[in-house]
Each structure stands twice: as structure tokens, then as C-alpha cells.
């Protein structure tokens, strides 16, 4: 079966007077079967630091036209005395 990935982007929660932006492409997963995708990356540099993140998407959320997308919610790694949260949806396949 073919594999696919999704794009994603967004902004973290506002903590300690600032936010960070993030974006990337999920890991590849098999098409046509129940699946999740891995997500890993580094936020933008802001307020003198950046945060790493590693997480996994929800299972596929089907659309009426046969495509699907995924949701995600995670905490970025602790840095500079604080954390942020990121959440959203991937692009549709």
C-alpha cells in the first residue's frame, strides 16, 4: 500500500509573554488502514530560546470526499523555565 504524510503549522499557547510558531511534515504512514503519524520539530526562536517537540497525531478523521486529516495536542519540551502547548489539525490527505 502507498504511504502518505500531512503538513501542519500553527502557534503555541501564550506563556511568559510570548508565543512560538511551528510547522512541518508528519512522518509517513500507510494509506487505507487505521493509522497515526509522528510529529517532531523545533519551534521558532523567540524570547531568546526555542522548544523541541515530539508527539503523535490522533487516528485519521475521515472526510465525506474520502480524504482524511488528523488532530494533535501536545506540550513542547521545557526550556527557559516554562512550557507551551500546541494543538491543531493536519492538512487533509
Describe the protein.
The protein is an all-beta fold. It has strands at residues 3-4, 7-11, 21-25, 29-30, 38-42, 52-56, 61-62, 68-69, 71-75, 85-89. A hairpin with a 5-residue loop joins strand 7 and strand 8. The model has no long low-confidence stretch (mean pLDDT 97).
**Please, what is the oligomeric state?**
single chain
Mind describing the biggest β-sheet?
2 strands, antiparallel
> Which stretches of 5+ consecutive residues score pLDDT under 50?
none
Count the E strands: 10
As laid out across the biggest beta sheet, the strand order is 1-4
Radius of gyration: 14 Å
Mass-distribution shape:
elongated
Distance between the termini: 15 Å
SS field, number of helical segments:
0
Mean pLDDT, to the nearest integer, reads 97
Order of helices and strands: EEEEEEEEEE
How many domains in all?
Answer: 1
Strand content: 35-45%
Helix % is under 10%
Pairing-aware structural class of the strands and helices? mainly beta
What is the strand and helix layout of this fold?
Elements: E1 3-4, E2 7-11, E3 21-25, E4 29-30, E5 38-42, E6 52-56, E7 61-62, E8 68-69, E9 71-75, E10 85-89
Antiparallel strand pairs: 1-4, 2-3, 5-6, 7-8, 9-10
